[in-house]
Amino acid sequence: SAEEVTAAYLETIAKSSINGYTCTYDGAIEMAKEADKGEGEGLLAGVPIAIKDNISTKGLSTTCSSKILEGYVPPYDAHVIERLKAEGAVILGKTNMDEFAMGTSTESSCYGVTLNPWDTERVPGGSSGGSAAVVAAGEAPISLGSDTGGSVRCPAAFCGVVGLKPTYGAVSRFGLISYANSLEQIGPMATCVEDIATVMDVIGGHDPRDSTSIDREVNYRDALVDDVKGLKIGVPDEYFGEGVDEGVEKAVWDAIGKYEEMGATWEKVSMPHTKYALAAYYTIAMSEASSNLARFDGTRYGPRHDGENWHVMASRTRAECFGKEVQRRVLLGTYALSAGYQDKYYLKALKVRTLVKQDFEKALSNVDVLMGPTMPMPAFKIGEKVEDPLSLYLSDVNTVPMNLSGVPCISVPCGLSDGLPVGLQIIGKQYDEATIMRAAYAFE
Ligand code: GLN
């Protein structure tokens, strides 16, 4: 029964040592009992799911792994949570993440890092590290993450699971606590593509409460056709640039070779603006973050550090409760948006964004999908990059261009490098999740 399954997961979570969850849901068993009463009604009836801690859950702590939201319990559910509940899913708990989704390793969480189940001395990737690690460790069959610049795909690659970033607008962001709203999407993580498609059938679709939500009917499970004959794959040289680990490169080329054996063809394509994508991404993401995080000032949510007036109170609260990385980004973003500098940084970045988008449109007009490594390297050691934020930012080279352009992309496990999982990234045309999921499904 759903009750037994849920109880078994909760027991496994209680014994866990990877620190994947920020909290478990004490109503989980009740939800499972309800699902049992409904006798399998709903697409996810009785299926347990773990939720990233930046997705609002009514009655259940939602902190973005930040001290500034300590004790915050949302009075409403995000759109995706409403949809999951309507289809009978059981919420297991909230998962650990980089503070406000800013990071690539889950090391900036106020709850401490999550350990990679493949090697507990290594990071699980980020920022949705908890969501990927709990699926990899068998502490949840499926989870939700969010992807602003790779935060679903990176941890999926590092933990050896499947992770999808849908087309911008395919999943409502209502109730997702914004980091950089023009870039991010909620996306599912699971051990197989079929589960990804099922979750998408539940959470995808129009929601009038998100003005960027697309009004399109899609059946994601229809895409699961085990046939890639005639599929045209584009391989951008730029995704195999400097710093790509040899083992990663080999695993990805082996995967492309397998597609050829299955009847697909591949050709090289050019994405000339890829080298500017990272700088544009960080300028835009930090600018949006500086504005989005202005609401956390000790007035409405979380703890307050008092002062003689509002200014002192707000700045004390923010200085005490935001971590180092969040403060760095708010400062840089404020600078990039300030009078006199806006044209030089923010507007320039927006222009580069358009060029990157055009690269995708051009490349994808001749081929069906693009393929390359999700991450340039396998999971790195905990602590290895904490003192060097730039080297952390650099590891996002292959994941941020897709968020700038809005196209859908999926990371699927494609082998090992030095005993650690490698992710193959498959990228598709705007709204064409069907083709990338078909490609990923055939590869499994
Ligand atoms: N690593 C990227 C960043 O720090 C992406 C994070 C994300 O997708 N939320 O911004």
From TrEMBL:
The active site is at K52 (charge relay system), S127 (charge relay system), S151 (acyl-ester intermediate). Signal peptide: none annotated. The keyword Coiled coil does not apply. Gene3D superfamilies: Amidase signature (AS) domain. It holds the Pfam family Amidase. GO terms for molecular function: ATP binding; glutaminyl-tRNA synthase (glutamine-hydrolyzing) activity; transferase activity. Residues 4-436 form the Amidase domain. Its EC number is 6.3.5.7. The keyword Iron-sulfur does not apply. Keywords: ATP-binding, Ligase, Nucleotide-binding, Protein biosynthesis, Transferase. Belongs to the amidase family. GatA subfamily. Allows the formation of correctly charged Gln-tRNA(Gln) through the transamidation of misacylated Glu-tRNA(Gln) in organisms which lack glutaminyl-tRNA synthetase. The reaction takes place in the presence of glutamine and ATP through an activated gamma-phospho-Glu-tRNA(Gln). This is Glutamyl-tRNA(Gln) amidotransferase subunit A. It comes from Methanococcoides methylutens MM1. The gene is gatA.
